[in-house]
């Protein structure tokens, strides 16, 4: 009988060991699933945040376009009244003006990097070319100063890739129109990169 009791005890111990192994394998499986769920949630949140930030910083301000479309604070009559008299009464094709090269150190800690940028301005045909060139020549020191400060605030990551270059072009156009024609319709249609060298 002692042998039968020993056999029953051994069988019970084996069953308990098998039960504990099953429980530990279930815990490991649930822990593994939990880790995958956490990774998936983090990836989804990161993608959503990236999309949101991209739209926030890369998009245009819709309130300004809505106001101007509705004839808000900047009515067309007011804008025409504030345009400097650069039109010679002639209507001609779009004309271009080459700015002098601008060189600035990039904002890169631990490394001395600089950028050399040469721009060509595309000016609206409403601006008389002779008067426009004289006007831009007069404002050239202000434009060069702004471009130097703007470029010095950029890092390597800010200027890499097609999207960043288009964003830079857009920001430069907006700033040049603000500097040249602060209370008038923008006359600089776009800027073209003639030279964009980083060393």
Describe the protein.
The protein has a domain at 86-198: Band 7 domain (Tetrahydropterin Synthase, Chain A). The protein has six helices and four strands; from the N terminus they run H-H-H-E-E-E-H-H-H-E. It has helices at residues 2-58, 62-70, 76-82, 129-152, 156-159, 162-180, and strands spanning 95-98, 102-105, 114-123, 188-198. Strand 2 (102-105) and strand 3 form a beta hairpin. Helix 4 (129-152) packs across helix 6 (162-180). The N and C termini lie far apart (92 Å).
What's the CATH class of the domain at 86-198, please? Alpha Beta
Helix run count: 6
How far apart the termini lie comes to: 92 Å
CATH topology title of the domain at 86-198: Tetrahydropterin Synthase, Chain A
């Amino acid at each position: 009988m002692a042998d039968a009791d020993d056999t029953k005890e051994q069988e019970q111990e084996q069953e308990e060991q098998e039960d504990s192994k099953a429980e530990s394998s279930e815990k490991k499986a649930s822990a593994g699933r939990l880790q995958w769920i956490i990774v998936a949630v983090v990836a989804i949140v990161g993608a959503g945040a990236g999309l949101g930030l991209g739209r926030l910083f890369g998009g245009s301000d819709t309130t300004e376009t809505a106001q101007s479309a509705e004839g808000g604070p900047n009515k067309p009559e007011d804008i025409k009244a504030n345009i400097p008299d650069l039109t010679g009464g002639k209507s001609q094709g779009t004309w271009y003006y080459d700015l002098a090269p601008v060189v600035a150190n990039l904002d890169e800690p631990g490394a001395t990097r600089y950028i050399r940028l040469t721009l060509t301005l595309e000016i609206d045909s409403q601006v008389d070319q002779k008067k426009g060139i004289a006007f831009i020549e007069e404002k050239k020191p202000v434009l060069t100063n702004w471009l130097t400060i703007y470029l010095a605030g950029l890092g390597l990551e800010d200027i890499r890739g097609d999207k960043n270059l288009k964003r830079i072009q857009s920001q430069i156009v907006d700033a040049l129109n603000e500097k040249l024609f602060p209370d008038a319709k923008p006359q600089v249609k776009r800027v073209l990169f003639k030279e964009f060298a980083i060393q």
